[in-house]
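Key result, reporting period 2: structure in, sequence out.
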């Protein structure tokens, strides 16, 4: 009897192990930043399940550094929150083995103000809020240079910092903040450079409210990122297909009020 019990127990364990393996095989853990893009991933999750039988578990983060760290250590299988310049900087700084496998949307960065209505009205000594993470800070400074508010030294890249400014005729002062906090700081500064994915939840309409907005030629398309050793995994192609589906495109128009630009 004891021998039979052991056989039954081992059989049950084998079945459970096989079920777990099957579950893992059909499930991807995807990291996003809490907010509109998480809502977008919910739509992609439904598409992936319906079209491919692929289960997506969404893991939300609130800090820009966490999703790449989690992806690199295997805690998640992919992430969708960043653009290529940011990924490049993370790989350079932290030696991650990560790679982009597809683009999603461009969420144009814009210059906003609650105090002035044009670039010409910006006063001398104005306080300017800009993101404090390396690539978004450089992105903001490039937009300010496009607005002819500053000029940076030759060779200043997408990772430029305020120290790279060589001409500042309006004597602008810079307040470096977490990108997610800048929209809330708008009443306390003269102008702020804000990412669309944070502007829209704050009630701003980029096309209507921005004094100056990036155009479709922006290199800052958001991307889908995985580990290099997972590039041959067929589930990753299914993930890209789900995120580039018509359903996600329609959801983006709703979530971002028509402000997002298709990048694929």
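The corresponding designed sequence is given below.
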């Amino acid at each position: 009897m004891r021998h039979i019990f052991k056989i039954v127990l081992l059989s049950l364990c084998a079945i459970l192990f096989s079920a777990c393996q099957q579950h893992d095989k059909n499930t991807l853990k995807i990291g996003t930043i809490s907010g509109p893009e998480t809502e977008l991933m919910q739509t992609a999750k439904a598409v992936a399940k319906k079209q491919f039988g692929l289960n997506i578990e969404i893991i939300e983060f609130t800090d820009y550094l966490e999703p790449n760290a989690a992806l690199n250590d295997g805690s998640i299988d992919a992430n969708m929150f960043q653009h290529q310049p940011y990924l490049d900087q993370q790989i350079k700084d932290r030696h991650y083995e990560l790679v982009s496998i597809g683009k999603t949307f461009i969420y144009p960065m814009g210059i906003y103000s609650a105090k002035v209505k044009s670039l010409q009205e910006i006063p001398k000594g104005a306080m300017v809020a800009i993101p404090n993470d390396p690539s978004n800070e450089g992105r903001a400074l490039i937009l300010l240079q496009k607005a002819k508010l500053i000029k940076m030294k030759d060779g200043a890249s997408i990772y430029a910092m305020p120290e790279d400014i060589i001409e500042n005729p309006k004597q602008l002062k810079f307040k470096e903040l977490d990108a997610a906090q800048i929209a809330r700081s708008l009443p306390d500064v003269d102008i702020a450079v804000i990412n669309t994915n944070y502007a829209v939840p704050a009630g701003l309409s980029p096309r209507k409210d921005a004094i100056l907005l990036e155009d479709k030629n922006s290199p800052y398309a958001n991307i889908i990122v995985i580990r290099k050793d997972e590039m041959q995994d067929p589930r990753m192609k299914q993930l890209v297909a789900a995120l580039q589906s018509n359903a996600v495109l329609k959801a983006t128009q709703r979530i971002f009020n028509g402000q997002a630009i298709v990048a694929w």
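The radius of gyration is 22 Å. The first strand starts at residue 27 and ends at 33. This case is discussed further under Risks and Mitigation.
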